[in-house]
Amino acid sequence: MFHLIPTNLEIDFLKISRPFVIVSTLFVLLSLVLLVKPGLNYGIDFTGGAEVHIRVPNDWKIDRVREELSKGGINDPTVVQIGEEAQSEFLVKIQALPNEIKSVSEQVEKALAAQLQAGQYEIKRADVVGPQAGSKLKQSAILSLFYAGLGIVIYIALRFDFRFAPGILRALLFDMVSTLGIWVLMGREFNLTTLASILTIAGYSCNDTIVIYDRIRDYSKTNSNWPIEKIVNKSINLNLGRTVLTVICTLFVVVSIWLLGGPVLSDFALCMLIGFVISVFSTIFVANSLVVFMEKRRLARIESIGRRRLAT
After folding, report:
1. pLDDT value at position 99?
2. Which end of the chain is least crowded, N or C, by CB within 10 Å?
């Protein structure tokens, strides 16, 4: 059988994991600081505002649409092209005060009417997200991330052992927080689409980690005389080919969506691309290191209890 990566490798991943664990910890702390200040650039899904779907002449590009809207008195409009370029349809997202939201569609139409004749443009749809609804969506987004992480940790604890739960929790924290930290540095908008990609990253990361955990558990039963370091390294090496192939296949899809999916899907794909790359390092170097730590702690506790019993 053909193997992209030989199954008889004996790379000591744990030996080189210490720098990665330290760097990942520092990056998580830095990301947490960035999430506080300057914080996420919330879209109108969370802050409230309006989305107006418009059609304009074919020779109008995104820059032209944004320029004409700005001339019409609309400050900092976010313009995203929808569908094929020949259709010349755009989604205009505008943050506005509560008493201004209902008049946004009229402002957009007025700005277009100043440059175009009737029939050359069309207001196809206008949706409004009120500030109260946006606030509830923000709260729901935070709770969804929390419950997703909690559910995964509980599953790992029941499916395997409590020794494995801290590792998966540490990996999840690293993946999601680091991705959000990079998102803040890039100045990208955080909306419901980005939230969906973050949750996808959590599931993807856990999938590969669980496969390695399964091998660790099996080797622990069949080779109980092996030190935990040997068991973990053996499990990672045997699973390395699967990890690499999964990453390559996933990246083909995500990069294709990012490059060819258009502006509507670009943020979703870009966020997943960042998260998938980060999750590879967390799966190999972060999650498994904590398994070793927890197992050594368990053995030390058992040895300590045995000594106390002998002493009494």
Report:
1. 60
2. N
